[in-house]
Structure formats: structure tokens, C-alpha cells
Amino acid sequence: MNQVKRAKVLVVDDDSVVLKAVTQILQREGHPVVAIDDAVEGLAAAKDPSIDVVVLDIKMPHLSGMDLLRAIKADRPDVEVIMMTAFATVETAVEAVKAGAYDYLTKPFENIDEVSLTVAKAAERKALKDRTRALEEALTARSQFEDLIGQSSQMRAVFKLVETVSHSTATVLIQGESGTGKELVARAIHYRSARRDKPFVAVNCSALTETLLESELFGHVKGSFTGATGNKKGLFEAADGGTIFLDEIGDVPPATQVRLLRVLQEGEVKRVGANEPVKVDVRVIAATHVDLSRAKEQGKFREDLFYRLNVITIDLPPLRDRPEDVPLLAHHFLKVYTGKADKKVTGISPRAMEALTCNRWTGNVRELENVIERAVVLTANDAIDVEDLPPGFQAAPQADSAVEVFSLAHLPYAQAKRLAMRAFERRYLSALLEKNNHNVSSAARAAGVDRSNFRRLLKQYEVAGRSMKPRSPKGPDSDSGPGPVLEAVS
User: What is the pTM of this model?
Assistant: First the structure.
């Protein structure tokens, strides 16, 4: 089964007995531990960027645990700190939480599992913060391509092509399913070109009747048709010096196709009802979700116009063919809609991210955006979980492995194998607990796994046994939400 990366823990306590005991408890769980018996030395050790969690005694000579806590959080606010005290009071807990502590433990420990579970929970929170920061850095890195988001090889190829064609004046044809971001590509090309300071004009060719479309594109003169009460400039004239984006070019009627061809060939437009043409300098970027080659062969699209448009082609892949981009996109939309809804939703649970990654996304990026917006509005937690997603995402995996494998067939082999293994392991652990009446010790013995490792697996796969109930949070900063975001696949 998959192994979880263990957190590196710094333990600082001037009591050598407690220091040794806590170190042994954590090392038994697989955590690398740095044990120090002096607060001043502990402050220096906490500067190590590989330290994930710090466990501090609250009363120490030379420098108190509270002072050490404040110093550590000031220097490294991302580190999770757990306080230990033999004099637990409400006031102590509140002071520690206000100073930035994740939780506190009372000495002597009634149950040594409490130590390891508290550290594990703090480590999960640290991992969630790290993953969120990594996604934010990736989002910042892509800002040069406006709102285009992706780290897959397919999207990197698109970015490279956008970079290359932006500096030319050649006509571009963008092909892709609805919701893949064709207009975003067009805008990226325009705003990286020498025309960036001139207009970018977008028109959906499928949304207008033939008469209205010609009037919108080429303009008209007064009296040219019923309702033409005055002269009007068309969008080609409005875009002079800039770029015009013709979305759904495949739906343009044959008569309008002839007039578009003239614009591309002669660089001039003639308003509806006018005799004299008007010169325009406009770069044309067209987009379609249909196969223009097939439409040309079927006589539905002019061959000469097709070749005029098809100088440079950019094919946008559907989201289901680039599942490694789902975590990055989901986090981007999470950030957008938590801001709009003014809600503090900090992440997406592994189960939810797994469900999002496996989905086929027939509506592509637009559908994913709608799903995340819905989840942000509905969730009452600080992280989106499967229950916050639409009903189709909440269905339990099919028992029939053939059905399950078919549902993953659109993914790359390594990605599909990883997700299938996670689904199997979660079902196995759930079934084992059910068979053993949700008794963790009995289930661990039946699995042939020692109890601590078995508990770690239950936590990793978010399967709850009878003794795995989460403890109540002890402050406003406690993390009672789901675990860290699922790692993006490479």
C-alpha cells in the first residue's frame, strides 16, 4: 500500500524523561525527530526549513515555551506548533492558540496515542498548506498567459504555440470542444501581440441570425433593411488596428462566408446596403467546436474560406485528456469563488479531488468551474469534500471491477492505476472494519498489520473506525476539516 511522507518533528523540553518518551513515540510512528533540551537551541533548530511540526514544553528556563512559540511563528508561520503543559487551564489554551499554536497536550499523557494522533493531524494541516502554496505558485507562474491554466504537456504545447504566433499577424483557427477556453487563447494571443493596445472584439457567430450577424460584423447604412434607422459601424471597423475573435465560425451561413472571405483577401469591408468598401487592418482569430475539415468536405463550409482561416491551427485538448490539470484548475476556481462568497474554504479533500480527477468533464473547464462554485456555496466546512459535490460525484465506486476500470479508461495508465489502487485500498479497509465490528485492533490483526500502521492507513484513506473519532477542536484555528489536497499527478 502507498506510504505517506512522515513529518519531521522538532521536540523541545528541558525534562529529559519527557523528551525521550515523546521522541520514542513519534519515531515509532515513523517521524524523523530532532530532540533538544534547551529552548534557545530549540529556536535555532526551528529555522531548519525541513521541520514540519514543533512540540514545545510550555515552561522552560532561559526562554519560556510561549516566548519560543511566538518567535518560531514570527520566523516560520507555516510551521505547526503543539504545546505541552502540566498545568492545563482554559486561559493557557486560549493564550497558546492566540499566539499561533495548533493544539496543546496535557502532561502526563493519559494515552500515548494522543501524542502521535495530534502530531499526525498537525502534519496533515502543514501538508495542506504546503500543497496550497505550491498550487498558488504554479498559478502565479502561468499569469503570463492571462487566464490560461495548466501544467500538462498538452497545455505547455499550447502555451508555446501562443507565444510563437502572438508576434505574427497570421490568421489563427482555434479548435476544441465547448468549454475548453478558446476565447482565453484568443485573448492571450492578442494581449501578447503588438496589437495589445488596440481593441479586442469578440462575437459569437452562432448567436445571431444571418441578417443581424452581417450587420454586426460589417455594419449597415440607413434604410438598408427594416429597422436600420441610421448608419452603423460594424465590429470589423470597431476592431481596426486590433483583433477580432469569431467564435463558432462553423455556424456562419454561406452568404456571410463569402463576405468574410473578402475581408480576409482584400482587407476591406462593405457595410450592408453601401456601395463603397472601407479599409480595415484587423487580425482574425476564429474558433469552432466542429470539425471544419469535415464540414468542408460535406459542402457546409467554403473550401477557400477554410484555407484562409486555417493558416495556424491550435487544438485545445478536452479536460478529460489532461487530468493532471484538474487540481490546479480546481484550486484556482476555489480561490476565485471563496473570494466572491467571502467564505474561508482553504482546500479540497483527497476524496473530493480524486472524484474530480476521475470525472470525464463533458463540459470541460466550464463544467469544473461550475462544480467548484457550487461546492463553495454549499460547504459548511473549511475544505470541500465529496458530499459538497453534485450527486453524480458522490456515488460509491462500483463493486464490479470491470465497470470501475472502464470509468478510468480515459486517463493515462499511471494515473488510472493510482486511482484504482486508492479505491481498492479504501474499500478493503472499510470492508475489514465492517467485518470486525469497526474494532481497529481486531481489524489490524486480521490484516496482518501492526495497530499503529493500520491506524495510519485508516487516516490516510479517511476511513473511520470506532476509536478513530476526531477530537474536538480546542481553538478557532483548529483544523477539523479533511486532510491535504491530493497531489497533482505528473
Answer: 0.58
